[in-house]
Design brief:
The structure is a homodimer.
Chain A lengths: L14 E3 L4 E3 L1 H18 L8 E6 L3 H12 L3 E8 L8 H16 L3 E5 H5 L3 H7 L1 H5 L1 H19 L4 E3 L4 H13 L3 H6 L3 E2 L7 E3 L7 H10 L16 H15 L3 H14 L16 E2 L6 E2 L6 H6 L2
Helix pairs in contact in A: 1-10, 2-10, 8-11, 8-12
């Protein structure tokens, strides 16, 4: 990859991170990556070794890396895989489920699997085809289903924490979109930790400070097999568009991604957005009459409106 | 330009504005442009017909358009041209001064001219070459000189209002840079109107809601000669880089520029950033011992530190 030396020993560097002015060999990189995860967990007071953590896993590099690090660090974890039924051409869901099951079996970890079609009678492609929200914004509809299911399973099975593997690139793309349209309600809630609230488990994102290429490097260097394809539905999504754009900025200004995200968290911490009406949390939540999950709607929640025909 | 019809009459449209879903012929465009300016002046309570307005003019399309509109609308205006001495290759300053003088003479308007080299013994290129700040960020150093001189002249000559022709593209590029690094002090102060404060005149930007191509179209359709070259020093500046990037986003999502800027103003209006320590204005300003303008520095202000050898 590079002819540079590792900053911690004399070995050849396996990865160079311009944004951190750091180059490391394979062993020191894997060590550094675990330490950095631990640091984020402590910094944002995510969880302790006594808590039961449900890790949302997709079979991709980020979520398998997260589960691997938490497992190696001795946390009490189980996985949750949600099969979305996206199998038209590349058998995307089948393949990603296989990777996830193999990962769990190899480490003798508990994996919960939800199959959307079995649970709700339709795959995500069928659901998004049928509904207007799905046709307009398939990624947003799919995200809503996943959030609903993650929260449901975590509560039903008694997990205190739900961990997702959003990395810095993910968070920055989300933040970028939220800032472009100044979505105050979303800005207020975008955080490495979302505290538990009536009907919601605690949500944490231990990888928020990792660049995507850092989680990719970890998975590669640890030889973890994962699904390399992007979801075929994501092609042309705004999220991917923003990621490309921000990657171009990062090339010009190494470190801008981290500065943008950390600057946002600091600004919020200092009190920006606190005054906004949108910051008043959970004021109008009530349980959905069908699924029981909290919703701002007076009738069925958005998930049940989409799922129930 | 387009085969569309004007929305207000049957003539062929001279300009189509996707962001406003509007196409207009030459006459109706010029009318619309003046009305929109008037609307911004009222909306942000910028100034009345009784106040004396100093318009900062560079000889470019935006500032000559602004002066033209304010003049046509019967406001009491004079111009201020600052000759920066940027004349190495393209005679940029000489040419832009000529355009400005011709514009003022044709309309029998008062034009004040400041020549930086005559006033301070050095041109901007000489100043930026000599100083570290200038070498690192020539546009930022030049901007500082211009802001200092605009405020000085307005105060010395008794103008109550200083009007600059920043358009939406300018504001969005500035906002984009400020948001990327969450420069809270700059976010707090970015506004179509900066109220007068101890030592500072009132600053207004009547063109903040116009796209750059709208001011360009106005200047062209009004047959106002202006300097078309960009400042040779601006090549490769962050500002231009952000503008390009945002223009690409605008192509994908027409209207995103205006939504980004107006969303920011609304979010600020609703109270975001108000809690920030950076929002406490003018607390530590004291007059510069040399020029008398307010500064946060305990000694000379940044301008005098740069100018005085």
């Amino acid at each position: 990859m590079t002819s540079m030396k590792c900053h911690s020993c004399t070995a050849r560097a396996a990865i160079r991170m311009r944004q951190h002015r750091l180059a490391l060999c394979k062993d020191h990189y894997l060590e550094w990556f675990v330490e950095q995860t631990e640091r984020a967990i402590k910094k944002y007071q995510m969880f302790s070794h006594d808590e039961k953590i449900l890790v949302a896993v997709s079979g991709g590099k980020d979520s398998l890396a997260l589960w691997d690090v938490l497992w190696k660090s001795g946390y009490s974890t189980a996985g949750l895989y949600i099969n979305l039924g996206i199998d038209s051409e590349e058998s995307y869901s089948q393949e990603s489920e296989r990777y996830t099951r193999e990962f769990a079996a190899e480490r003798e970890l508990t994996l919960h699997v939800v199959n959307v079609a079995e649970m709700y009678g339709e795959t995500i492609p069928q659901m998004t085809q049928r509904t207007r929200r799905g046709r307009d914004k398939p990624c947003s509809a799919c995200g809503m289903v996943k959030r609903h299911e993650m929260n449901r399973v975590a509560r039903d099975l008694g997990y205190e924490i739900l961990a997702t593997a959003h990395n810095l690139d993910d968070e920055v793309a989300i933040l970028f979109g939220n800032v472009l349209t100044w979505q105050a309600d979303l800005l207020v809630r975008q955080s490495p930790v979302l505290e538990a609230a009536e009907g919601f488990v605690r949500k944490v994102k231990p990888f928020v400070r990792f660049y995507e290429r850092e989680t990719a490097a970890y998975t590669l260097l640890r030889d973890i097999p994962y699904i390399e394809e992007e979801c075929p539905h994501a092609t042309g999504s705004k999220q991917l568009y923003y990621k490309d754009l921000i990657n171009k900025m990062e090339e010009e200004q190494p470190g801008i991604k981290l500065a943008f995200y950390v600057g946002f968290l600091n600004t919020k911490e200092k009190g920006a957005f606190r005054n906004l009406p949108e910051a008043a949390e959970g004021l109008e939540l009530s349980p959905c009459p069908n699924c029981g999950q909290p919703t701002t709607s007076s009738g069925l929640c958005a998930f049940c409106r989409m799922v129930n025909i």
